Amino acid sequence: MQAVEVNRAGVLDDIPHGFLGRRGGVSTGAVAGLNVGLGSGDDPVAIAENRRRAVEAVLPGGRLASVYQVHSADCVTVGDAVWGDDVRPHADALVTDRPGAVLGVLTADCAPVLLADREAGVVGAAHAGWKGAVAGVTDRTIAAMISLGAAPSRIVAAVGPCIAATSYEVDEGFHQRFLAQSSDNGRFFAPGRPEHWQFDLEAYVAARLEAAGIAAVERLGLDTYVQPERFYSFRRATHLAEANYGRQFSLIANR
Question: 6-164+200-253, which class in CATH?
C-alpha cells in the first residue's frame, strides 16, 4: 500500500500539519488516489477512507473539521462540537485553539494556507482561490486567530500546492479586476498570448499574508497542474476533458 504523501513547511515544523496530494488513497478511475472531495462524484466509502487516512497521517486520533467551501472570505471558529461530513458550515477558512481538532481545507489548484501561533496554541487553515483571496480570506483568518489570543507578530503561515503562474492563463477582464483593487497588483501578472496574462496566485496570496504583518510566510512552490501523479488539478482535468477531478487535503492541528 502506497503511503500518504505529506508535504510539510519549515515554518510549521513542530506543528502537526501537512499539505497532502493524491498519493496514498483508495479511490480509482479519474480521481485515483487520496481523493477527499465529497462533491467529486467518487465512491463515498472510498472518500471516507481517504479522509480517515489523511487525518491519521497528520494527527493520529485527531477530530476532523472541514467546511463546505464556496469561494468566500468567511472564516469559522471550531470549538468542542464534533463536526461530521454532513455538518459543514459554508465558509472557506477555519481556526481553533482546541487540542485534537484537525482543520482541513480542500483544493484542486486554489491555494491552501496553513497558519499557527505556537505560543497562543491557535491554528488556522484557509482555502484561497482567486475570489476568496481578493475578498480577504487570509485577512479574515488572521483576525479570527487574533480573537482567540494569537498575535500577528507570532503567526507563521505557509502556502501549499496550487496552480503556478506558468500554468494559470487568465483574460484581460480578470487582470483588470486585480488592477482595480490596486495598481500594485500588476506585479503578479506576466504577459501571455494576446489579451491574456499568466497569474501568480501563490505570490499574490503570500503578499496578502505579508501585508498583514505576520512573522513569516513560506511558499512551497508546488504546481498542481504539472504533476498529475502527485496532485489533483481542476484546470488540468478540464483541459483533458476528464469527466471529474479529485480534491486534496491540507490539514493543521493542535496536539
Answer: alpha beta
